[in-house]
Amino acid sequence: MALSNAPFLKMNGLGNQIIVADMRGRKDRVTPEAAIAINARVETRFDQIMAIHDARMPGTANYVEIINSDGSRAQACGNGMRCVVQFLSAEQGRQRFTFETVAGILFGEEAETGLVTVDMGTPKFAWYDIPLAEEFADTRTIELQIGPIDAPVLHSPSVMSIGNPHATFWVKDDVWSYALDRFGPLLENHPIFPERANIGIAQVVEPDKIILRVWERGAGLTEACGTAACAALVNGARTRRTARKATVTLPGGDLVVEWQADDRVTLTGPAEFEWRGEFDPASGAWTRSKAA
Ligand SMILES: N[C@@H](CCC[C@H](N)C(=O)O)C(=O)O
């Protein structure tokens, strides 16, 4: 028997294109084929689908699954979590939520200002946790063998996991002068990253100001990436380039990231509703709702 369509909201978190799929009360999942089909249409091009399922663990509001636009599954998505918090907050009239994700238990809260803060958990630095394909005693700076690319600074990133794998490459000049569209795929798929990696190019302007561009694993160049902003701040602080709290400016705008004394990392920024529709989680066939 065919299942009914599931409702979705098209949202964005600082220009990170997000589809919030309401899978509550259902047993099925969004398939990779559906994600690829949805992304193939210009109107629904997206970076991540955040699929909200019924809670599986006591004490959590929901289980949230994350699907990249290439159909792969991700463990964490900061901008998407803010969209989920804003959707549930508007629906339920309460501001604080606890979620289960593959990356662990995360917390989110919408403030009176409309900005949303998510607690993204604790960073991991061990090579096997990121993961890397070979042992590195110190992941604050690793040397990559990349072959003859014309940007030597793109050989020595700081690497870590904030649920998902990140490499932050530090540059002293303008982040826009680097052909991230060309280097991104090469670095994302470098053999040192057995599960691929999100690639950030970061410039520290002041200890509390970072400019960042990101090539996302499974999604390519995006306007903003919340977990990459967390990685830039944490990697910046552990290499003594930045303070433990900073504004991270991405093409889509600003995020505030703090690496707290208890080791947890928080991310604050906007989330915006665009339009709603319904879709078939198996095939990706969708229609836009007439209601706003
Ligand atoms: N847009 C995200 C990150 C989404 C997941 C990432 N592409 C991955 O595969 O790890 C964010 O805001 O954090």
From TrEMBL:
Biological processes, Gene Ontology terms: lysine biosynthetic process via diaminopimelate
Reaction catalyzed: (2S,6S)-2,6-diaminopimelate = meso-2,6-diaminopimelate
Cited PROSITE patterns: DAP_EPIMERASE
EC number: 5.1.1.7
Residues the record lists as binding substrate: N16, Q48, N68, G78, N79, N164, N198, E216, R217, G226, T227
PANTHER family named in the record: DIAMINOPIMELATE EPIMERASE, DIAMINOPIMELATE EPIMERASE, CHLOROPLASTIC
Family: Belongs to the diaminopimelate epimerase family.
Protein name: Diaminopimelate epimerase
Organism name: Devosia crocina
